Amino acid sequence: MGIQGNASSLKPYKNPNPHHSLPLPLSLLLLILLIYPNPPLSASVELNPDHQASLLLFKSWLQDPNQALSTWVGFNCTSWAGLTCHNQTGWLISLNLTAINLSGPLHPMLCMITTLETLVLSRFSGDIPGTFVKLRHLRELLLNGNQGLGGFLPSWIGNFSKKLEKLDLSSNMFRGKIPKVCFTWNHLNIWILETIICWEMLVSFINLGYLNLGSNELSGTLPCFSASVESLSVLNLANNSIVGGIPTCIASLRSLSRLNLSSNGLKYEISPRLVFSEKLLVLDLSFNDLSGPLPSKIAETTDKSGLVLLDLSHNQVSGEIPSRITELKSLQALFLSHNLLTGEIPARIGNLTYLQVIDLSHNSLSGSIPSNIVGCFQLLALILNDNNLYGEIQPELDALDSLKILDISNNKISGEIPLTLAGCKSLEVVDFSCNNLSGALNDAITKWQNLRFLSLARNKFNGALPNWLFTFQMMQAMDLSGNRFSGFIPDGNFNISLNFNYNDIGPRTPEEPLITIQDPEIKAFATVAGSNELSFNYDLFSTVGIDLSGNLLHGEIPAGLFGLQGLEYLNLSYNFLDGQIPGLEKMQRLRILDLSHNSLSGQIPENISSLRNLTLLNLSYNCFSGIVPKEQGYWRFPGAFAGNPGLCVESSGGKCEMASIPTVPAKAFKEEMEDGPISVWVFGVSAIVSFYSGVVSMFCSARARNYIMQTKV
User: Fold this and answer.
1) Cα end-to-end span (Å), the chain
2) Which distant-in-sequence residues (6+ apart) come within 8 Å of 666 by Cβ?
3) Average pLDDT value for residue range 278-295
4) N or C, which end of the chain has less CB nearby within 10 Å?
5) Percentage of the chain lying above the pLDDT 90 cut
6) What share of the chain is helix, strand, coil (3-state, %, to 5)?
């Protein structure tokens, strides 16, 4: 429905011949525009007959499964969905057909409605009709999100309307180079003045304030947009194929508040002369091939304004993090991951008191985590994994009581987990794996009641596993593998975790990816809304599982552990566990079960073969005995019973084949499993961890935590 406004006292102009549209007399037109610079709207407006005819032709080419345009009958403009008309003339001035499930090509007759000022379309296909050049009064043109709309950007895109203020062609299928625009404008004022203007750029609208061409197939180099130097505030060219360097003229866009050039092919060093104004809030240059050092100054800043989000992740930037980065007082999110940065974390990083997200992962940073970092008291995510950091975890980190993600994995951090870390009561994702941490698990961890993911793998922790280990209600994945924990697996209350006990046992699709505990994926979303407010959230993708492999645990496996209906991954390999395997009939979501290299005995439970989601099974190198019948389908798991000399595995010919011990266990085990459905790495990693210390180091250095940061302008 059209927007309704106050009715005017002027009588509407009547066309003497409704079958032939005639323009208003110039004097009357000027009078209307002077009195009503923003056209008045009415609850009842008669739609211009020619505009009605053009709209019906436009509709005839569309697919409208929801009958959203069933209201397009008669001449009452306000009853036509998506239309707004001029109160006095009946001219169509706005057409908004987004999010109503329309599809189809654009009929060229739509462009005969030259009075249009706003055009918003989505889910259309084909090329942009050349008749769009007739829409010379357009102020807003939004054609985003049309996966079938493509072809080369037409050369007239920068010439058809001098009034255009907002252009959004994002998430389409446009391709090719950004056109070089050279055209003539005739400006009508008191006299006619002809001016010839040539730009090597896409857009040449003097009043353009918003340009979104993200997620297309645009190529070529980055233009300067100098015609919009005073007006352009939002520029999004992300997810294209733009190459070359970043021209310093981009920084001359004085009104620019959001710049997103991520996921292109930009190269070379960032010029030290590329310094943006204090109005810039968002700068996203991630996922390019930029190199060289970080500029010591990338934007002006004041006490009240400046950068809120800076993202240079996934480039080839090298050298140290400049200390002047701590002068960006308004900064709330800093993403510098996946680069070649060296040196230490700036000691004064705590001066950035508004920081909510710090991601410096996957670099070559050294030194310790500065104690000054607690000055970032609003911090929600501290991600420092895959560097060369050393020293101990600072007890002062307890001041970060809003922290949700703490990842210092794959560094050289030593010492124990401080008791004071109980103050970080908001923690949800904690990864301390692949370090030199030691000591027993203390009760500080029990204060992290929102914990969803905990990895202490491949450290030097020791002592008994505490009774509270399985008491986290939101826990999704726990990895304590590759340590020196001893004693029994605590037989506690296994019914607390909602994820461990999730009882939806629907079958998995073959295409559904297997995301192991060792390599979860975290998608973080940082959005700057309004003037300077950052919104941060994340999604955790990980197998629901428990990994206690590669320790010194002994005794029987608690029966409650095998009653967890939501568990997808269970690895207890390379311990000294004994007794028999309890019933597994409740574990219908289980996909990976590794109990290898223990002292388990008795017969192989028949109900294991009934686990329809089970993809990987490894019971090798135990003391199992008896017969494994062929009808149980264990042929799906080659090598699963190796190293059980008392076990008879029935072959396809009905013969009994003893599960003998290979001469070189680890080598033979790997060879047997290479032809299996999943690489031996998935379930045999604990073997490597426990017995081959050289390979442990290789494994830790090769692991990659997948933090995928997504920013929105």
Assistant:
1) 29
2) 687, 688, 691, 692
3) 94
4) N
5) 46
6) 15, 30, 55
What CA–CA distance (Å, rounded) separates 327 from 302? 9
Q: Which residues contact 694 (CB under 8 A, 6 or more apart)?
A: none
Select from 66, 129, 141 the least CA-distant residue to 103: 66
Distance CA 365, CA 336 (A): 11
The answer to whether the beta carbons of residues 294 and 275 sit under 8 Å apart is no
**How many whole angstroms separate alpha carbon 426 and alpha carbon 397?**
13
Token reading at 622? 């135990």
Instruction: Please state, in angstroms and rounded to a whole number, the distance separating the CA atoms of residues 1 and 348.
Output: 55
**Residue recorded with tokens 């975290």:** 522
CA distance 681 to 687: 9
Per the document, the length of the chain is 713
Q: Which amino acid is at 94?
A: S
How many whole angstroms separate alpha carbon 640 and alpha carbon 611? 15
- Sequence-distant (6+) residues with CB within 8 A of 593 are 570, 571, 584, 608, 611, 614, 616, 617, 618
* 149: nearest Cα among 82, 213, 81: 213
Residue 423, both tokens: 């103050």
CA distances from 253 to 75, 278, 571 (A): 45, 11, 56
From the list 179, 259, 262, 167, the residue with the least C-alpha distance to 215 is 262
Higher pLDDT, 186 or 215: 215
Residue environment code for 88-105, b if the CB has 16+ CB neighbours within 10 A, otherwise e: bbbbbbbbbbeeeebebe
pLDDT band at 707 (very low <50, low <70, confident <90, very high): low
CA distance 353 to 607: 57
Q: Residue 591 and residue 468: Cα distance in Å, rounded?
A: 26
Superfamily of domain 553-649: Ribonuclease Inhibitor (3.80.10.10)
pLDDT at 702: 38
Cα(280)–Cα(326) distance, integer angstroms: 17
8 A C-beta contact, residue 164 and residue 138: yes
* Interatomic CA distance for residues 532 and 547, integer angstroms: 42
CATH of 46-197, one of 3.30.10.20, 2.40.30.170, 1.20.1250.20, 3.80.10.10: 3.80.10.10
SS (H, E, C) 368-436: CCCHHHHHCCCCCEEECCCCEEEEECCHHHHHCCCCCEEECCCCEEEECCCHHHHHCCCCCEEECCCCE
**Which amino acid is present at 158?**
G
pLDDT beyond 70 at 1: no
Residue 551 tokens read as 């320790």
**Which two structure tokens, joined as six digits, stand for 248?**
């310093």
Structure tokens, 639 = 């090598």
C-beta atoms surrounding 580 within 10 Å: 13
Which range has the worst mean pLDDT, 108-112, 222-226, 290-294, 341-345?
222-226
The whole-number pLDDT of residue 224 equals: 83
Rounded to whole angstroms, the maximal C-alpha distance in the chain is 104
Instruction: List strands edge to edge, sheet with 533-541.
Output: 533-541, 521-529, 706-712
Q: Which residue has the higher pLDDT, 669 or 614?
A: 614
Q: Is 34 helix (H, G, I), strand (E, B) or coil?
A: helix
Would the pTM count as exceeding 0.85? no
- Residues 57 and 178: their CA atoms lie apart, in Å, by 32
Structure tokens at 281: 């809030």
**Element (H or E) spanning 236, and its range?**
strand 234-236
Intervals of CATH 3.80.10.10 along the chain: 46-197, 553-649
